[in-house]
C-alpha cells in the first residue's frame, strides 16, 4: 500500500508498507528516511470524512483506519512538543522547527509580545537565508517571514533588519534551536486544538497541552483552564466526551461535556487528553492505558470462545513511552549506534581478510577512474574541436555571419568570405562574438589528475 506523507515544508515522501501492517511500521519507515531516531515525539495525521484532523493509531492495522483507494495522504507531525533541550538529534530539531514555523504562519501559535515576534522573525530569516548581506532579495523575502507573526510595516522591517544583522555568524541549526526556545515559552506551545460544542450548543475550542486543557468559549470569549491533577475521569461515547473535575480541595466539582462533529473526533479528543497526561505527567505509561482496547463484532464473537484472542482487537491508545522514557530510550539507542560504528571501524582495521578485500576494491576503483578520465579527455577534445574555425581549422570561432547567423569561423577567415560555407547565402556583414572556450588549463588538469591517480596505483 502506497502512502504520500507530507512534511510541514510541503515536501512529500513516498512510503510503501503492507496493508495489514500497523501504523508504527509506516512511521518507522518515514523516520528512517529522515534519519530520525526520536520517533516517540511524532505521529501520522490524516483527514476524517468531515475534514477533522485525526491521529493514525500506530498500534492498529492501517487498512482498518483508512478508507478509499491508495495512495493515501498522511502528514508527519510533532505529537508531543518537548522542550528544545530534550531533543538530541539535529534532524529531529529541524522537523520541530518546520512545524513551529508553519504554526506561527497559520496563527496556531500566537505571539502577543511584538518584540518577541520580531526577534522570532529575525531567527527564521537567519535560518532560511543566512547572514544579512544588505541584499534587496532578502528584504523582499521578509514579507513571507512576517506572515502570521507581525504587521509588515517599514518600522518593523527595520527592526527585523537590525535583529537579523546582529545574528551574523549564527548557523542555521543554532538559529532553529533559538527559535524553538522562544516558541517553547509561548502559552500555547504544544497545544492540540479540537472544535466542539458545550451543553448549551455553543461552539468552543478545546486546547489540550502538556499541563492541562483549556476551554475557550468562542461566543463569550472566555477561557477556562483545567490542570491534569484536577481531572477525575475522562470517558467518551458516540460523539460525546465527558470529563469529571475535582475542585482545588479534592472534592468532585462538576462534569464537563463536549459534543464533537463525529465519533472519530470524540475518540481523538479522548485520546489526546489521556496520552498528553501520560506523556508529560507520568513516570511510565500505566497498564490500564496501554492495554485498553475494543473489539469489532467478529472479535467479540470470537472472544466468547477464546478470551485471549487478538481477532478484531483495536487498541484505544498508541502511546508507548512517557517523556522521560522517550528521552532515555533515544539516548541509549544513539549510544548503541555509536558503539556499533566504532566496533565496525575496529574490525575493519584489524581483520586481514577485510583489508585484502578493501585493497582489491581500491584497485578496481582506481582502474575504473582511469577509464573515466580517458573518456573525459576524449569528450573534451571533441568539445575543443567544436570551437575551432571550420575553414582554417586553426583559430577559434570568433564571428557570426549575417543575416544567416551561422557561427562557424574565425575573424580572419570571415573577412575573406562572400558566401556562408554552410547555407551559401550572401554575407551582408560580420558580427564579432565572444564564445567562452575550453582553455588548455582544463586539459592539463585532467592530465595531472591522471598522473596523480597513476602514482597512487
UniProtKB/TrEMBL annotation:
Residues 1-284 form the FERM domain. GO terms for molecular function: ubiquitin-protein transferase activity; zinc ion binding. Pfam families: FERM_C, FERM_M, FERM_N, zf-C3HC4_3. Keywords: Metal-binding, Zinc, Zinc-finger. InterPro entries: Band_41_domain, FERM/acyl-CoA-bd_prot_sf, FERM_2, FERM_central, FERM_domain, FERM_N, FERM_PH-like_C, PH-like_dom_sf. Residues 389-424 form the RING-type domain. CDD domains: FERM_B-lobe, FERM_F1_MYLIP. One of its GO terms (biological process) is ubiquitin-dependent protein catabolic process. SUPFAM superfamilies: PH domain-like, RING/U-box, Second domain of FERM, Ubiquitin-like. Coiled coil: none annotated. This is RING-type E3 ubiquitin transferase. It comes from Lottia gigantea.
